[in-house]
Amino acid sequence: MALSRRNFVQLLGAAGISAAASAAFFDESAANAARYAEGDVSNGSRTPRGASGRVVIVGGGMAGTSAARYLRRWGGSGLTLTLVERNTAYTSNIMSNGVLTGQTTIPSLQYSYAALRNTYGVNVVTAEALGVNPTAQTVTLSNGSTLGYDRLVVAPGIVFDALPGLTVGDYDTTYPHAWQAGAQTTLLRNQLMSMPSGGTFVMTIPPAPYRCPPGPYERACLVADWLKKNKPGSRVVVLDANPKIMAEPIAFTEAFTSIHAGVIRYVPNAVIDHVDKANSTVVTTAESVRFDVFNPIPPHRAGALAQSAGLVNVGGRWAGVDVLSYESSAVPRIHVLGDAIGTTMPKSGHIANAQAKVLADAIPKLLTGQALNQAPATSSACYSPITMTTASWLTGVFHYDPATRTMLVKSIAEAPSISASNYKDMSKWFTGLMQDTFA
Ligand SMILES: Cc1cc2nc3c(=O)[nH]c(=O)nc-3n(C[C@H](O)[C@H](O)[C@H](O)COP(=O)(O)OP(=O)(O)OC[C@H]3O[C@@H](n4cnc5c(N)ncnc54)[C@H](O)[C@@H]3O)c2cc1C
């Protein structure tokens, strides 16, 4: 069965999905790409034929790349699609905690834009988008050029706040957050390798909403498992600004109190007051802790372009959107996707891919004056390694609620147990998601 737009919505319409079932959403991607290459852009869907216009997408991450790919598949060949991305390849955050344990590497998490260019006919421009003129409907780029658009998609991910006592530059040199995979992830890996046995690894979690709700707890578990085997007697202290574990509470409570008991110490309500660099200490509202390796995950907000384009109107940090089309609630004809938006949905790569599909259905309709789908659905799945060989998972399905004009939780499911088979399923899910985005 090809993953047509109709199938996608019907699959999500089920009362709930397991993480393994969610992987099925991506399995047909290679076959569909081949069909497009043969000239079949209909993909069996109800996509309006004859849509034309210039769509510029800024940000070639999980959200922006999925949008470009599905705009071509569902919007047809009449669209002129341009993707602006500052990097020549994308580094996946998903699975990047495995770099810390040496189970994977940054190069193995990198994805190119070759398929977008060669299979989907997207003009991929390697440049920084510097500014948007919503009146002239143009985007200025660091290479000196200006792109005109009929619809602009802004998918810039996030930027990180400086913590009191630290500069943003400190994250690159000394105290890596590694919450954007890349050189900081490798730096944190190297710091762990150099940490003395019996040392203390301290990590902090910002107030929700933050990127990947289970991600910090997963990191704590993986680091603890690695330390047990490689740095005996070491400890992990998790300083969480939130009052409780924010995702997969059953699995992570078991992990912290049983599987990694005596290694991980979890401290809720620990809002950072400041970092005392001279004494290698972080001071929080709960307690002060001395560290050998410090991994602050700072509060974050919508990427800089969302802010400079006037799109940030939710809590001073995030971009508000109409979830029927992901059009900005602040500036017309600009759409925002992924971690940069402030909605009822979590900030995850899986759901960014799903949001992109709703947008790819909506933009051709907006360009041809057709009515939008009034019942979109999205889903999210996260696999969370608990040790270097076992994992848990979490899924959520969201349906549009016309009364509140938000995406309401239809179902949430957590793995019934932590297992090695979940760990194996994780690879299949990840491969499928990345194929559906980059292949
Ligand atoms: C450790 C970790 C584990 C995770 N695990 C999971 C998981 O298991 N499952 C899951 O679903 N999600 C997971 N996530 C979350 C997931 O990575 C993010 O939710 C996802 O990457 C968001 O996609 P995005 O496109 O919004 O942002 P990004 O993927 O960050 O992409 C944004 C892109 O925009 C580009 N950009 C920004 N501004 C500009 C500009 N002005 N000009 C040009 N380019 C620009 C950036 O270079 C970047 O490539 C994890 C995250 C982390 C940190």
Description:
With 439 residues, the chain is of the alpha/beta class. The chain has two domains: 26-159 and 301-372, FAD/NAD(P)-binding domain, CATH 3.50.50.60; 162-298, FAD/NAD(P)-binding domain, CATH 3.50.50.60. 30% of the residues lie in helices and 27% in strands. The protein has 13 helices and 26 strands. The chain has helices at residues 5-12, 19-23, 29-37, 62-75, 97-100, 114-118, 168-173, 183-194, 215-230, 249-259, 304-308, 349-367, 420-438, and strands at residues 53-58, 79-85, 89-91, 110-112, 123-126, 129-133, 138-141, 146-148, 151-154, 158-160, 200-205, 235-240, 264-267, 272-276, 281-284, 288-290, 293-296, 300-302, 312-314, 318-319, 321-322, 327-328, 334-336, 377-385, 391-401, 406-414. The strands form nine sheets. Strands 5-2-1-9-23 form a five-stranded parallel beta sheet, with helices on one face. Strands 13-12-11-17 form a four-stranded parallel beta sheet, covered by helices on one side. A three-stranded antiparallel beta sheet has the order 6-7-8, with no helix packed on it. Helix 10 (249-259) links the parallel strand 12 and strand 13 (264-267). Helix 4 packs parallel to helix 12 (349-367) and helix 4 (62-75) crosses helix 13 (420-438). The longest helix has 19 residues, at 349-367. The protein is globular. The model is unreliable at 1-18 and 21-46 (pLDDT under 50).
